[in-house]
Structure formats: structure tokens, C-alpha cells
Amino acid sequence: MSYAKDVNIGENESLYMLKIPHPYYLCSAEQSRFMDEKTITEFGIDGFTLMEIAGTRAADFIMSEIPANSHGVFFCGKGNNGGDALVIARLLSQQDFNITVCFLSGTEDLSPDADKNFRLLQKLETDIQVLKWEDFTPEDYDFIADGMLGTGLNTEVRALYSDAIEYINKQKAPVFSLDVPTGLNADTGQIMGSAVQSDFTLSFGALKIGFYLNEGFDTAGEVILCELSFPNKYKNPASYLIDEEWVDANSPSREKKKHKYDGGVLYIIAGSEGLTGAAVLAAKSAWSTGLGAVVLITPKGLLEVYEKQLVQIIKKPIGDHDDVYFKESHLADVLEVLKEKPGKLLIGPGIGRHEETIRFTQKLLTAFEGDSLIDADALFALSKWENWDIPDSSDLILTPHPGELKSLLNKELSNDHERMEAVITFAKQNGLTILSKGMPSIVGTESGVPYLTGYDTRVFSRAGFGDVLAGKTGAFWLKYSSAELACFQALLNGYKGSKQYFATNSGSLEPMDII
Ligand SMILES: NC(=O)C1=CN([C@@H]2O[C@H](COP(=O)(O)OP(=O)(O)OC[C@H]3O[C@@H](n4cnc5c(N)ncnc54)[C@H](O)[C@@H]3O)[C@@H](O)[C@H]2O)[C@H](O)CC1
Ligand SMILES: [K+]
């Protein structure tokens, strides 16, 4: 796509640059205001024109959803968010919609562009009903437009606004929020006292990051981007949305990477007595990507389990017949296996938390001079390790769930915005990639750029999905050589699998359903 931005995905991976189309840029309210202001003052498209474009795009979308002759009520604040609503009200009234406009803070104190649009509205010959919230009498409206507050929200919503929000949230009619659902913090996704529960959020100029954090996902409804005329040079996103289209476009084809992919082995150190299921799921999901060789390294006492369940997978038993978890005494033999062929290591699913296993894990990570994906119980071992001593030449992917992340950082994270900030800092400071599982899942990178999932990840919260994700991430890491792309592909693979499953099934999803 011609309007793509180059993003360097990290020094070690500077082989290629990620091309991410603008629809997947996520901005803060501040960045949104910055683009708006620069376009007006420096580039030279005035705010009134931007408002007309925003309103026109939004009106087109509403008309694609709502039949003409419908009756809509437009709730307007006194800022530019209200101005957007007034443009839409004017345009729809010209298309035979029946329009009621309701002002939350009167009409005396409107922003200059909102005021100009109010005057234009009054010039029309169409019959538009204008009133104040104090005089508002509920009717059966066919749809509701929320133009009360946008990126200008700066505190908890005040009275009158909160009353209107309460009214709107009780209605069955579809709600279109302009730019941001009123009451939602566009940066953190937190609800500022109360917020409009939208069916559609028509986001102007760029998607807001808050739609994907905390309560944002359940508040914003379906998000539609209405592009504005911001020059690309003013676009400086806070984050990016992980999307199939751009991820696939950035993933080198198998043919091109054939030598690397076919040459690499995914070594999996997983499983212990009572937790063999984790090893089975990780190995099966890695194998299902089409990877040439998956090697499961296991304590010898568990070999029988895997011989039955993992027919295609190469098994390397270590230690004695009665060993059912990894011990320090296994270290030399495991390192020998890891030297057999070039590849990457996935360590952690189901290895348990025995003292000896923790020491084994720490010593192995010190001695192994290769790339490692550290998951589950191996993350626990990492969090019990004051000063990690892992070779600088080893690239790392960490895949913690929220609890594991807290132990790793030794820090309380009270919400997803805090989690994102912590992931950004940790990945950058330690020069590694983190796939922080949760809703949203957040990929933190060496370069400091975070990437967010934009779909509902809650279906993956049951036991076993983490093992599947780890197996796929490890396999895609070999396939694409990029830690970031591996995380994106593994996340999207689960999403696609769940969509396929729910297309023909109902009820709950099992980890095996997405392998
Ligand atoms: N993205 C863009 O570039 C464009 C955005 N447009 C629209 O403009 C708004 C932002 O407009 P702004 O005037 O800055 O702010 P708001 O309309 O969101 O609100 C400001 C208004 O609200 C009062 N206020 C703030 N907090 C509260 C509160 N908690 N309770 C009650 N009232 C509050 C404040 O005092 C102000 O008076 C953006 O979202 C877009 O919709 C352009 O139209 C196109 C370009
Ligand atoms: K709004």
C-alpha cells in the first residue's frame, strides 16, 4: 500500500521493515489533537473543513446502516465533537431523515466551528427540532448520535452529561458515537464515571488506542475509521493494531525463507508428571504449522506417555527411567541434544516448579547460546532469578499471562494501560520481545513499539491455550526469523482458528480446536 509507514522492527531484525497501513495506527488523544492542530496551523486545511470531512464520512456510514425517513436524535456538547454531530445532522436532514438536536450545555458557548455549523443548520429549510437537555422529552428514536464529548474529555463526566449517558444506555436504538464514546478515556480505555455504550464508534483521523484497552473494547462497539486529510508526516502512532492483512503482507513467503525454515528445529523442553498435557499441546501445535522437525526433550520417565500421544514428534528422553521432571543433573545431556541441529528452544509448558527444575532452567538458559522462547513455569524460574545471566547473543521471546508478568516485573499492574506501559519499558530495557497474554494481548518489542490485538481474546483464557500459543509462536519464529512476526502470526492463527470453529459450532472452545 502506498501510504504505509516504515517501522524498524529492531536492530537484530533490520533485514526488513514492517509496512503498516494507516488504518492500523493507534493514537492517543494528544496525538489526535496534534495531527488536527498541525494540519490546521502548519499545513493549512482549516478546522471547519476537517469537521465537514469528518461529518460527511460519518453521515455516509450512518446512511449505509439506517434507512431514510428514520428519526435520529443528536446529543451535542459545546466542543468540536458537538460540531461534528451538527454537520451530520445537517447532511442527514437533507436526505429526508427526521432530526432532533439536543444540546447538553446550551448553544451560547459553542466552540467557533460548532457555532458556525449551528448557524448553517438553522439556515436549512428542513424542519429540525432543536432543544436543550433540560427540555428533552424522550421519544421512540430510530437511532442516536453521540456528539457530546470526544478527545476533549478531561475529567470524570459531569452532571447532565452523565444523565444523558444513562438515558442513552437504556435505549434499544442503535448508538453511533462520534470519534470516541462519550465518557471513555481515549488513551487508557477507562470509563470516566460513566460512558455511552456504543454500537458503532466513528473514529476521526485515526483509531484511538483506548478502544482496545480496559473497558474500551466493550464500550466502543464496532469501530469504523473515518479518514481525514492529515498529512502523513504528522502521523506518529502510539501503537499498532495487529491485523491479518498487514501481518501477512509483511511475512516473507515460505519459498523465500526455505533454507532457514527447513533447516531449523524447534526444541521443546516441556512436561512433568501431572503436566504432560502442556507438552502434548505445545508440540502438536508447533507441528501443525508444517514445521519440518519438532523435538520434544523429556525426562525419561514420561516417554511412554508421549510415544502414544505424539507419534510424529521426535522424542529425546533424558535421565533415568524414574525421572518425571527436569533436574540439574540433566543439564549436560540436554545441552548435547540442543547442539545436534540448528534451531530455537521453547522452554516452560508444564515443567513444574520443583526447586531442581528452577535451577535446571536457570543453568540451561545461561549455557545455551541460542534463541529461546520462555513460557509458563520457565517464566517462574526467571522471576526467581535476581540477575539473569543469559548470553547477549540469545534472542528471547517471553510469553507471560498477567500473573506471570506481575511476578516477572515484581510490580502490581492494576489495569491494561499500566500493563502496556510496563511491557513497553521491560521489552525495550532488556532488548527482548514480550507477548503479554490477556485482553488485549500486547506484543512489546526491542524498539519500544507496542502492538495490540483488536479482537476478543477472552475465548483463549482457559488452561491449555497458552501451550498452544507458545508452540505456534516457536514454530513461526523459525519460519519467519522475526520474533515480532512470530508473535503476530501465532496470535492471528488462534483468532482465525476460533472464527472457523464458531462458524459451525457453539459452546466453549477447547485448545485442540485451534491446533
Ligand atoms: N481528530 C480530529 O482531528 C478532529 C476532531 N474533531 C472533533 O473534535 C473533537 C475534539 O474537540 P474539542 O473541542 O477539543 O473537545 P470535545 O468536543 O471533546 O469537548 C470539549 C468540551 O467538553 C468539556 N468537557 C471536558 N470534559 C468534560 C467532562 N468531564 N464533563 C463535561 N464536559 C466536559 C470541555 O470543557 C469543553 O468545553 C474530536 O473528538 C472530534 O470529534 C474535528 O471535528 C475534526 C478533526
Ligand atoms: K462522542
UniProtKB/TrEMBL annotation:
Query: How, per the record, is the cofactor bound?
Result: Binds 1 potassium ion per subunit.
Alphabetically sorted, this entry's keywords are: ATP-binding, Isomerase, Lyase, Metal-binding, Multifunctional enzyme, NAD, NADP, Nucleotide-binding, Potassium
Catalytic reaction equation(s): (6R)-NADPHX = (6S)-NADPHX; (6S)-NADHX + ADP = AMP + phosphate + NADH + H(+); (6S)-NADPHX + ADP = AMP + phosphate + NADPH + H(+); (6R)-NADHX = (6S)-NADHX
The UniProt record lists the keyword NAD? yes
> The YjeF C-terminal domain covers which part of the protein?
243-515
Which cofactors is this protein said to need?
A: K(+)
Name of the protein described by the UniProt record: NAD(P)H-hydrate epimerase
